[in-house]
Amino acid sequence: MHKLRTIEMHRLTVEEFKEAKKLPLVVVLDNVRSLYNVGSVFRSCDAFRVEAVYLCGITACPPNAEIHKTALGGEDSVDWKYFKNTEDAVAELQREGYFVYSIEQVEGSTKLQHLRESLATQREKGVAQRYAVVFGNEVKGVLQSVVDMSDGCLEIPQFGTKHSLNVSVTAGIVVWEFAKHLLLQQK
């Protein structure tokens, strides 16, 4: 087995990325305080060709050296927009026809392993096929007011002693699940 060099991977240029068809998903960061987490989310969003990242509240915006350190240029390829209030971002997304999930542990949440069934139910009901996922602050999670506005909540089941995952790890897992189901749907 031969480990591929970067040149052998035939990756898109930033210009090609901007023109390419995107995963119908917007990632919303609700008051994420770590610039390294923000950068890591940009990098994951680039990997799965996410439509955009919405940065809200205290979440830092590019250009920023600490974001770049983990984004490695993902902040240049993925479109982004800043909102002072996360509620405004969610309201805009819903007006544009997005189904908004908060990623949070709440009563009645949909476990991530049931995402496929949730998406199928929405298709059957004629709900738009565009989605947004809201990831919360490293300590407080998604604001309750944002949870209240959301169309649903997704939760990653966990089986250890800790009750949460790092926000950038969570984003990678959730974005991959959407990519897996939405890209399979297209084939």
Written account of the structure:
By secondary structure, the protein is α/β, with parallel strands linked by helices. The protein has a single domain (21-186), classed as Alpha/beta knot, CATH 3.40.1280. Helix content is 41%, strand content 19%. It is built from 8 helices and 7 strands, in the order αβαβααβαββαβαβα. It has helices spanning 14-19, 35-47, 65-71, 74-77, 86-95, 115-124, 144-149, 167-186; strands spanning 23-30, 50-56, 79-83, 99-103, 110-111, 131-135, 152-155. Strands 3-2-1-6-4-7-5 form a 7-stranded parallel beta sheet, sandwiched between helices. Helix 2 packs parallel to helix 3 (65-71) and helix 2 packs parallel to helix 8 (167-186). The longest helix is centred in the C-terminal third of the chain and has 20 residues, at 167-186. The two termini are 29 Å apart.
Main sheet: strands, sense, barrel:
7 strands, parallel
| Global outline | globular
Can you say what the CATH homologous superfamily is? SPOUT methyltransferase, trefoil knot domain
Identify low-pLDDT runs: none
Strand arrangement within the widest β-sheet reads 3-2-1-6-4-7-5
Q: Hey, roughly how much beta strand do the residues contain? A: 15-25%
Radius of gyration: 16 Å
Helix content: 40-55%
Number of continuous helical runs: 8
What's the β-strand tally? Answer: 7
Average the pLDDT over all residues and give the rounded result: 95
Q: What letter string, H or E per element, gives the SSE order?
A: HEHEHHEHEEHEHEH
Distance between the termini: 29 Å
Number of folding domains?
1
CATH topology: Alpha/beta knot
CATH architecture title:
3-Layer(aba) Sandwich
Which structural class should the secondary elements be placed in?
alpha/beta
CATH class: Alpha Beta
